[in-house]
TrEMBL record:
Domain SRP54-type proteins GTP-binding: 108-309
Entries under SMART domains matching the protein: AAA, SRP54, SRP54_N
Main location class: membrane
Pfam families registered for this protein in UniProt: SRP54, SRP54_N
Organism, as annotated: Emcibacter nanhaiensis
Protein function: Involved in targeting and insertion of nascent membrane proteins into the cytoplasmic membrane. Acts as a receptor for the complex formed by the signal recognition particle (SRP) and the ribosome-nascent chain (RNC). Interaction with SRP-RNC leads to the transfer of the RNC complex to the Sec translocase for insertion into the membrane, the hydrolysis of GTP by both Ffh and FtsY, and the dissociation of the SRP-FtsY complex into the individual components.
Gene coding for it: ftsY
Gene Ontology BP, a term: SRP-dependent cotranslational protein targeting to membrane
Name under which the protein is recorded: Signal recognition particle receptor FtsY
Subunit structure: Part of the signal recognition particle protein translocation system, which is composed of SRP and FtsY. SRP is a ribonucleoprotein composed of Ffh and a 4.5S RNA molecule.
Keyword entries, A-Z: Cell membrane, Cytoplasm, GTP-binding, Hydrolase, Membrane, Nucleotide-binding, Receptor
Topological category with respect to the lipid bilayer: Peripheral membrane protein
Length: 312
């Protein structure tokens, strides 16, 4: 009888999840710096590659300026370029790689989850709920995406799977009223963490953004310090659109932290770096798969070296 394959650890899952992004970056760098001197042409090619990988213009320019200052008109290896890029990326991510912390003085600690449709928001809520349970905390979910029956049902499934209560209402109901009721019930039941789902807001739909602002206002009627965290879930496969979404949600919902999902489904994993550079918001977790264990806090140096193809 063959032995059961051991479950992969987070390092292996992260490596597998970043394969497409790593391949695009390391392959591109190798093709540019194949026994070549660093000159204006190779610098321009490198900058184009980094921008196309969604690392952002500022980060891409800084890496090129740094290499230019050190190695211009000298031979440079692909490994040297990768190392310089990894160091730059790690420096950016180190400042924002912060696991989400629950304040035990809040009953409940209210977490408002925001993001556009398809970002993986509801699934992220389910995964987070399980992780909080594993930490010994009581959890309640609120199905604040009242626009879609499927969203309500999906959250109810996560509630059943994790054996946690789900506060929900009818399709098309008042999301703000539901959030108000959820906070009230969580207080009465002395719940540790309340996770509130919201509809996928399209950044160009002003009325949806106004409703999100209303949800925040009614939550504050129970607790003026709440929501204690407003987490924006971003889909890595959208590339630079993630930057635009973050800009809009930050203005409307006072976003306090980010979760980036679907890094395993894209070669544009560099957008995590661009978001970190532009917004300096805590990045609480990244997702590289569908299982509960595939959403984890990340190590900035480990992620950076893996992203550019340096494993050791």
């Amino acid at each position: 009888m063959s032995e059961e394959q051991p479950k992969k650890g987070w390092f292996s899952r992260l490596k597998d999840g970043l394969k497409r992004s790593t391949s695009a970056l390391s392959g591109g760098i190798s093709s540019i710096f194949n026994k070549k001197r660093l000159d204006a042409t190779t610098l321009e090619e490198l900058e184009d590659l980094l921008i196309m990988s969604d690392l952002g213009v500022e980060v891409s320019r800084r890496v090129c300026d740094r290499l230019s200052a050190q190695k211009y008109d000298k031979e440079i290896s692909a490994e040297e370029v990768q190392a310089a890029l990894a160091e730059e990326v790690s420096g950016i991510l180190e400042a924002v790689a912060k696991p989400l912390e629950i304040n035990p003085g809040n009953h409940p600690h209210v977490i408002l989850m925001v993001g556009v449709n398809g970002s993986g928001k509801t699934t992220t809520i389910g995964k987070m709920a399980k992780q909080f349970q594993n930490d010994g905390k009581s959890v309640m979910l609120a199905a604040g995406d009242t626009f879609r029956a499927a969203a309500i049902e999906q959250l109810q499934v996560w509630g059943e799977r994790n054996n946690v209560p789900v506060i929900s209402g009818k399709v098309g109901g008042d999301a703000a009223g539901l959030a108000f009721d959820a906070v009230k019930q969580a207080k009465e039941q002395n719940i540790d963490v309340l996770l509130i789902d919201t509809a996928g807001r399209l950044q160009n739909k002003d009325y949806l953004m106004e409703e999100l602002a209303k949800i925040v206002r009614v939550i504050k009627k129970h607790d003026e310090t709440a929501p204690h965290d407003t987490i924006l879930v971003l889909d890595a496969t959208t590339g630079q659109n993630a930057i635009m979404q973050a800009e809009v949600f930050q203005k409307v919902a006072n976003v306090t932290g980010l979760v980036m999902t679907k890094l395993d489904g894209t070669a544009r994993g560099g957008v995590l770096v661009a978001c970190a550079e532009k917004f300096a918001l805590p990045i609480h977790a990244i997702g590289v798969g569908e299982s509960i264990d595939d959403l984890q806090p990340f190590n900035a140096d480990e992620f950076s070296r893996m992203l550019v193809g340096l494993e050791s």
